[in-house]
Recover the amino acids of this structure.
């Protein structure tokens, strides 16, 4: 729990930032969240990325920094608790209703760098005096926000330390955590039951064949290509689809990979992730590389392009991603 001097520090920063915003004609806005009667549920302490995070009451005026947290919020019915967002939220992830809800949330910034990482100042978040921040950046880490008395949670699949074992159980556990945080445990239990049933149905016809695959994040326009190892959600996703990850021996979430290494591994299937841009351009970022035509996946046209959050990090969207992967590339039978 934040100490009194930290909250005092936070108040001073917020006051200064609010005066600055007022001078510039800005406003912080507020959420009209539907809250529950506190029946002794709070305070609640949850574990996240190796940190204990304590919530003294149901968090409102939540600031959301990553699209990856949206499916957790919708799973337990608390997207209305978010009063401000930052980053990019592609329509392709969400239902029309959810996309409209997101569009109606105040935007702090949608600036990202070439790798898709959010560019935002600490002051822009602190001035909102949020009850909770969801998602973290280099300058908005757990420690940085804790200094000013603001609790924060990161998507567990993006933890830089204490990364949990990736898999569908990780998703179920995180939905349950959000149920605790927002006093929506019954909703979380129902959401988890639905997800488990969907995974069972989606994988019921999958046969573990001899297909191999790789999940890549290419840079459109030239640059570094990244691959995903056994610390990412893509590894259990491929396994659930009956595909062996050729980089499953890499004890990393994501790492740089060369075309030479990819040619040596020669996967039967390629899954290409992207955060924005046209899927065709993403595919060409790999298929147009000199020598890429020698890859089995390219020759056999077994290349599946997908929006990033359908595979990474672990979230309910990964269940949709698994279904889309099997629909596109088959179940191995």
């Amino acid at each position: 729990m934040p100490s009194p001097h930290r909250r005092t520090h936070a108040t001073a920063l917020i006051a200064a930032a609010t005066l600055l915003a007022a001078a510039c004609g800005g406003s912080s806005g507020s959420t009209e969240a539907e809250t529950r009667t506190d029946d002794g549920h709070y305070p609640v302490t949850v574990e996240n990325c190796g940190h204990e995070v304590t919530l003294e009451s149901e968090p409102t005026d939540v600031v959301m920094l990553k699209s990856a947290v949206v499916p957790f919020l919708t799973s337990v019915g608390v997207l209305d608790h978010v009063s401000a967002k930052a980053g990019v939220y592609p329509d392709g992830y969400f239902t029309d209703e959810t996309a409209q809800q997101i569009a109606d949330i105040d935007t702090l910034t949608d600036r990202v760098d070439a790798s898709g990482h959010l560019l935002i100042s600490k002051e822009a978040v602190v001035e909102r005096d949020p009850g909770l921040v969801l998602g973290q950046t280099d300058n908005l880490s757990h420690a940085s926000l804790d200094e000013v008395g603001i609790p924060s949670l990161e998507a567990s699949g993006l933890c830089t330390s204490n990364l949990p074992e990736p898999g569908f159980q990780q998703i179920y556990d995180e939905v349950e955590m959000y149920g605790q945080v927002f006093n929506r445990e019954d909703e979380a239990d129902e959401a988890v039951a639905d997800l488990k049933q969907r995974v069972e149905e989606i994988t019921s016809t999958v046969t573990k064949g001899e297909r191999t695959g790789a999940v890549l994040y290419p840079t459109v326009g030239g640059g570094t290509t990244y691959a995903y190892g056994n610390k990412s959600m893509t590894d259990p996703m491929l396994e659930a689809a009956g595909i062996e990850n050729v980089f499953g021996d890499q004890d990393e979430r994501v790492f740089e990979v060369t075309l030479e290494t990819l040619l040596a591994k020669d996967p039967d299937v390629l899954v290409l992730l992207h955060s924005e841009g046209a899927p065709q351009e993403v595919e060409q970022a790999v298929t147009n590389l000199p020598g890429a035509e020698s890859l089995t996946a390219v020759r056999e046209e077994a290349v599946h392009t997908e929006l990033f959050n359908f595979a990474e990090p672990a979230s309910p969207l990964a269940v949709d991603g698994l279904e889309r992967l099997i629909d596109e590339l088959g179940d191995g039978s």
